[in-house]
């Protein structure tokens, strides 16, 4: 059946449903779109599931500089429908994840042993176009932009080959979409980037999807104390179940949260993570670290043009401030392994998924997200 279906659509424009952000802050509209066939070194994917990440919400609200109208979503799992000329790493029928940060294996980041922020990324800045500077999406005769080399809120998408990773054929496609972003971003920040040490103290600002995955990583690394900070106390029970030992709501504190963390730990934490994307909480995370050996990781995506202001003389005391994207993983090399690790019960992503809804209930999913009810809601096509 599938073979016949693949032969029917390959090389042809596909008409399907997709969510479009027409203008800044407007509600997403589910529309009929035309998806062009993949050009050379591109892959067309039939989406199976996609997570709603905080970054998608920032993008739709216009907090990041993206070109409108665009199709949001970057945390996706799907099956390759067809491939363009010269594609060799995937073939029709393969299970794949979309990658918001590609791995071209040719640029300065990709060639450096530690770099993962590939120069072919389209997040900072974002053009919303494929590598040849054109789009594959049209709606009502209008060009629709892509987002983050992914655009997963659509039944079919087209991405460059460098932004797609083949995963294990046994992967449960209704779940593994979160291994395209949330899991490497959070869990990876703790285990791979910070390399949280056994017996250490940690603080995590933001206990949403990404923060929860950070907590999982801290716990898996043997942290002895994990302080969780969130203004939504509904997030606390699940965070505790994942390993948070102390929960703080900054709104209920009489002192700045960093001062409370300092007092709780006497000297400051070994590792601090910011998973919200706000300058204030970034500063609070920095100020929560041990002055000499504390390591502060910035995981949240801040809004465009926002600035971070730190006390300059304090810098010399020795703390490390590090930004991290997708857990510093070289995406095509490392993300498929996380899927395999999940299949082999080495990591358990299930507690990170709180909701699954059909794609046409996208608005309900965003309502639940805005109401602070979700850790991750996955949309199913
Ligand atoms: N102080 C503490 N917690 C806050 C604050 C604040 N000022 N503002 C928001 N929060 C909490 C929210 O209550 C929520 O639980 O931060 C959490 C953010 O989680 P999500 O909205 O689920 O977003 P998530 O997908 O986890 O992404 C978090 O990481 O990848 C980036 O762009 C993404 O910047 C975003 C961040
Ligand atoms: Zn690269």
UniProtKB/TrEMBL annotation:
PROSITE patterns assigned: ADH_ZINC
One matching Pfam family: ADH_N
Cofactor(s) of this protein: Zn(2+)
Keywords tagged on the record: Metal-binding, NAD, Oxidoreductase, Zinc
Residues annotated as domain Enoyl reductase (ER): 25-379
UniProt cross-references to InterPro entries, sorted A to Z: ADH-like_C, ADH-like_N, ADH_Zn_CS, ER, GroES-like_sf, NAD(P)-bd_dom_sf
Family as reported in the entry's similarity comment: Belongs to the zinc-containing alcohol dehydrogenase family.
Name assigned to this protein: Enoyl reductase (ER) domain-containing protein
Organism: Felis catus
């Amino acid at each position: 059946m599938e073979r016949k279906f693949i032969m029917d659509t390959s090389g042809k424009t596909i008409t399907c449903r997709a969510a479009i952000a027409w203008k800044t802050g407007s509600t997403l509209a589910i529309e009929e779109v035309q998806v062009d066939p993949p050009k050379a070194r591109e892959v067309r994917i039939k989406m199976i599931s996609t997570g709603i990440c905080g970054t998608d919400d920032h993008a739709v609200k216009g907090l990041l500089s993206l070109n409108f109208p665009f199709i949001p979503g970057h945390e996706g799992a799907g099956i390759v429908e067809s491939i363009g000329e010269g594609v060799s790493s995937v073939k029709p029928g393969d299970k794949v994840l979309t990658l918001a940060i590609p791995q071209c294996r040719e640029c300065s980041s990709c060639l450096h042993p530690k770099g993962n922020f590939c120069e072919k990324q389209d997040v900072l800045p974002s053009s919303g176009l494929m590598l040849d500077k054109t789009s594959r999406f049209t709606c009502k005769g209008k060009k629709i932009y892509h987002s983050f080399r992914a655009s997963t809120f659509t039944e079919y998408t087209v991405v460059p080959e460098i932004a797609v990773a083949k995963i294990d054929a046994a992967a449960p496609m209704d779940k593994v979409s979160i291994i395209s972003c949330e899991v490497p971003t959070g869990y990876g920040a703790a285990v791979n980037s910070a390399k949280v040490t056994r017996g250490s103290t940690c603080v995590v600002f933001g206990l949403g999807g990404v923060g929860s995955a950070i907590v999982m990583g801290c716990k898996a690394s043997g942290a002895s104390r994990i302080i969780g900070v969130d203004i939504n106390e509904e997030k606390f029970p699940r965070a505790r179940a994942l390993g948070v030992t102390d929960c703080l709501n900054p709104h209920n504190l009489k002192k700045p949260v960093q001062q409370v963390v300092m007092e709780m730990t006497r000297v400051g934490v070994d590792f601090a993570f910011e998973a919200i994307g706000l300058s204030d909480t970034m500063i609070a995370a920095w100020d929560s670290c041990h002055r000499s050996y504390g390591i502060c990781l910035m995981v949240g995506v801040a809004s465009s043009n926002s600035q971070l202001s730190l006390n300059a003389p304090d810098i010399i005391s020795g703390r490390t401030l590090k930004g991290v994207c997708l857990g510093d993983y070289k995406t095509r090399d490392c993300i498929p392994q996380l899927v395999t690790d999940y299949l082999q019960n080495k990591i358990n992503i299930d507690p990170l998924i709180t909701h699954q809804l059909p794609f046409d209930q996208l608005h309900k999913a965003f309502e639940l997200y805005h109401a602070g009810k979700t850790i991750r809601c996955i949309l199913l096509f």
